[in-house]
Amino acid sequence: MHTDVLPHLVAPHLDAEQIRTPAVAPLVRTTYAVILAGGRGTRLRQLTDWRAKPAVPFGGKHRIIDFTLSNCVNSGVRRIGVVTQYKAHSLIQHVRRGWSFLDADLQEFIDVLPAQQRTQDSWYQGTANAVFQNLDIINMAAPAFILVLGGDHIYKMDYGVMLAEHAAAGADVTIACVAVPRASAESFGIVQVDEQRRVVQFQEKPKDPATLPGRPEECLASMGIYVFNAAFLYRRLQQDAAQAGSAHDFGNDIIPALLGRADIHAHRFESSCVNTVNGRPYWRDVGTLDAYWEANIDLTTVTPELNVYDRGWPIRTFQEQLPPAKFVFDDDHARGHAMDSLVSNGCIVSGATVRRSLLSTNVVVERRSLIEDSVILPNVEIGCDVVLKRVIVDKFCRIPDHFRAGLDLAADRARFEVTDKGTLLITPEMLGQNIHSLV
């Protein structure tokens, strides 16, 4: 069952204190990372009408996919394929502009793998099929291990720790797992393990999930992060491709079919997480408007849960050459200032008040406007005497003078997207500004 593990690459019994030793280097160098970045993310509603979820801006100057890409590069995994499909132009453009610094002479690269119908006359049918249709490209890199990742979560993780644990366990596949509240288990694949952390049960989005021993309100959830021995994965994907009725999905089909037939190891995210909050690992699915708003607004607090100032684990991105943020006018009724806020390069706060908000790059806020508890995406212009409260404003919006949003939710629902928690989304189309270009 373990014949696919290369003996000279197995790192025996490494723990968290040993992850920076040279023993991990052969593991990360012989790994190919596949980032699945083709999904729309429908729960973000109109925010993904013109872009894939991994391309959605986050944190002022990043895109969501930057966190997965940064984890790869920081971990030493530098042979990467980004699999795209849904409205991928801005995602492809971002990866090419911001992630072209790797050295091809050292066999380092980030390849964009758009849906090409390489093996069949259809687009990607599921996560496993997306990898299967690119096996010829992956195989050219001759990896010993394949790291399968999603491109749509916010977290900081050293994949080298997981790879070392996988090799030391002699597993066929390792699944990264994190504890989640039982109430949210329906959104995840739920894992049960034995004392050696072998997976003995896997439930995909169960209504009655198994809970952690002694912790009845928590479940062990798959993060959608997998390490496979390469030859093992090739065979399993080929078998799945020939399986009638399969949805060709890792969570629905590949992993459940391996139970009892392969050595499946569970990796606890706590041991590889680079960002903890009160001892618990930080991992966020920003797949709803409320979750997206909350994760962005958290960055404006005195001590954010997500540390983006960690120089030891930088989050890279494409950075435009922009001037510093600027605050102008100091009149009694038009003072340019921001409190408890994150203001990015290229912004001009011109006699306006910004409070507990995040302004992404190239945002202009004009005189006497008030922005509170809001997330403003790049290249937005906000006019004079505007009031915005608990609003997400999409890229390229032009907010007219005297505009109001977030004060009367009943009225707002007639014009904008409003969640049950009262988070508003405003897009150019909702304002009659049909800017489909490029997000």
- Strand content range: 25-35%
Span between N and C termini? 46 Å
Q: What is the count of DSSP helices, taking H or I runs of 4+ residues?
A: 10
Helix content: 10-25%
Question: Largest sheet, order of strands side by side?
Answer: 5-4-1-6-11-8-12
CATH architecture classification name of the largest domain: Alpha-Beta Complex
Mean pLDDT: 92
Low-pLDDT residue spans: 1-20
Cα-based radius of gyration, to the nearest Å: 23 Å
> Number of domains in the coordinates?
2
**Basic shape:** globular
**Major beta sheet summary:** 7 strands, mixed
What is the tally of beta strands?
33
What is the CATH homologous superfamily assignment of the largest domain?
A: Spore Coat Polysaccharide Biosynthesis Protein SpsA, Chain A
CATH topology of the largest domain: Spore Coat Polysaccharide Biosynthesis Protein SpsA, Chain A
* The level-1 CATH class of the largest domain: Alpha Beta
Written overview of the protein:
19% of the residues lie in helices and 27% in strands. The strands form nine sheets. Strands 5-4-1-6-11-8-12 form a seven-stranded mixed sheet, sandwiched between helices. Strands 20-23-26-29-33-32 form a six-stranded mixed sheet. Strands 16-21-24-27-30 form a five-stranded parallel sheet, with no helix packed on it. By secondary structure, it is an alpha/beta fold. The radius of gyration is 23 Å and the shape is globular. β32 and β33 form a beta hairpin. Mean pLDDT is 92; it is low at 1-20.
Can you give keywords for this protein?
disordered N terminus; 439 residues; alpha/beta; 10 helices; single chain; 33 strands; 2 domains; 7-stranded mixed beta sheet; 6-stranded mixed beta sheet; 27% strand; Spore Coat Polysaccharide Biosynthesis Protein SpsA, Chain A; UDP N-Acetylglucosamine Acyltransferase, domain 1
